[in-house]
Amino acid sequence: MKGRQHTDICRVDVSTATSKPCNIPSSNGTMSDIEGSCHCGAITLRIVGGFGDDAKSFICHCEPCQVLSGSLFACTAFVASKNLQVVRGTPKPYKQSRETNSSGMQVTRHFCGDCGTPLWGESEVAPSGSFVRTALFGNTLPPKAEVFWKRAHEWEKPMVPPGALFEAGHGPLTA
Ligand SMILES: [Zn+2]
Ligand SMILES: [Zn+2]
Fold first, then answer.
1. Full-model pTM
2. Distance 28 CA to ligand 2 centre (A)
């Protein structure tokens, strides 16, 4: 059964800056900020305070995430948009049409216009947050949930316990 759905995210601040995925000292001295770059290095993102212990990391099996990742699913973490900064480069936005999203939510995805790396997405479903692709930060964050499991293929196996497997949207993650 095929259908359409999805939610993803974004948002930004542009300044200038540094590079590669690594921990950098935090301005407030508590949690470390983390930075990550696209494959070609043109874009660098920073998450102020890092992901934190309660990071909402998840795998999304929706059809747009499959196509836009060129793979089976997308690995994403939901972070407060105020904590996501673009410190180098200018990401290219892709405003996904509502018709490609069964929820009818507007979704905008951002990627590197040079190398095509998916960066983060934003959705009306969670206007205060951004869905950041965890690969930019080394995929060190294990997924805590899987969403749109109904779009997964019969030969795929869950990576999370049954209670963390959701047939559809991101509701439990963005609440
Ligand atoms: Zn790039
Ligand atoms: Zn998705």
1. 0.79
2. 33
Could you tell me the distance, in angstroms and rounded to a whole number, from the CA of residue 85 to the centre of ligand 1?
A: 16
> Does residue 63 lie in a domain region?
yes
Burial letters 66-76, b for 16+ CB under 10 A, else e: bebbeeebbbb
Residue 116's identity, in one-letter code, is G
Q: Which domain holds residue 79?
A: 22-174
Surrounding ion ligand 2 within 5 Å at CB are 6, 60, 62, 65
Structural domains counted in the chain: 1
Tokens 């995805």 correspond to 109
What would the pLDDT profile of 85-98 be if each residue is shown by its tens digit? Answer: 999 999 999 998 88
Kindly state whether residue 106 falls inside one of the protein's structural domains: yes
The first and second tokens of residue 13, run together, are: 């601040």
Give the ligand at the shortest distance from the Cα of 88.
1
The answer to whether residue 29 is domain-embedded is: yes
| pLDDT tens per residue, range 17-59 | 333 344 444 455 567 999 999 999 999 999 999 998 778 899 9
Does residue 4 sit within a domain? no
